[in-house]
Amino acid sequence: MTVTKYSASGNDFIFIIRKKKKDRSKLAKRLCHRQNGVGADGLVVVMPHAEHDFEWDFYNADGSRATMCGNASRAAAHFAIEKGISTDGESEFLTGAGVIKASVNGNYVTTDMTKPIILSQELEEYGETWWFIDTGVPHLIAIRENVDEFDLEQAADLRKRFNANVNICSIEDEETMLVRTFERGVEDETLACGTGMVACFIRANNETLVNDNIKTLPKSGEELYISYEEDEDVYRFAGQVKKTFVAETVD
How many domains does the chain fold into? Predict the structure, then answer.
């Protein structure tokens, strides 16, 4: 089986092309295993679609499905351009959360995110107020003075009780934000989470703590850019992606 590995801001993904949908949960667990497989945060299965360039099935490392993944959407657009599935630097594809449009300029990819839903602005947990926002997948967001300490036991508890990813963020200034994320399906902190960074931006922007166009730094330290385009009512998420290797796996 030919697999292509991508890294998008420290989030890593395996891509395969298939003709038909089917349950590939076991395959995802095997390929994503860090010791016995290729190793990744998720598996992306790219399949043909009648109305769009392609559609995907996205699997977390534990074999569970996810409707959306921001960093994977950027890597998917780059992969599709390289494979000739998408052309002219533009990609449009169907995810479980809806249609994604992306533009690819070399290794720099900009994605139009799906329309977010603010589920709650007043969840009180562990002595602080959390927002609950769905940016394709659900996220809990707390804003703190700094993100130096991230209690992963606390995050795991919140993840289980709310079935959501858990994010903490801090505001450096009106144009810079730091984010750390505990992701469901990986069940640990990851180096980056695109939908989580966008969710943090939405809260911070709604509370007028940041401007409409900011730089975001996840745990990986790679710079990503998030903006709200008011005239189009769309959130954009941009940054570098890297194809790390292509390999043949042994069944």
Answer: 2
pLDDT for the residue numbered 152: 97
Q: What domain range is 12 assigned to?
A: 2-112+240-248
CA dist., res. 13 & res. 32, Å (int): 8
The enclosing H or E element of 143 equals strand 138-143
b (16+ CB within 10 A) / e for 147-163: beebeeeebbebbeebe
| Pairwise CA distance, residues 200 & 104, whole Å | 24
The 10 Å CB-count burial string (b at 16+, else e) for 35-52 is eebbebbbbbbbbeeeeb
Q: What is the pTM of this model?
A: 0.93
Please write the tens of the pLDDT for every residue from 121-178: 999 999 999 999 999 999 999 999 999 999 999 999 999 999 999 999 999 999 999 9
Comparing C-alpha atoms, which of 69, 64, 68, 117 is closest to residue 96?
A: 68
* Mean predicted confidence (pLDDT) in 54-83: 97
The CATH number of whichever domain residue 169 belongs to comes to: 3.10.310.10
Kindly name the residue from 32, 69, 169, 200 that is annotated as catalytic. 69
Q: Indicate if 169 belongs to the active site.
A: no
193 is catalytic: yes
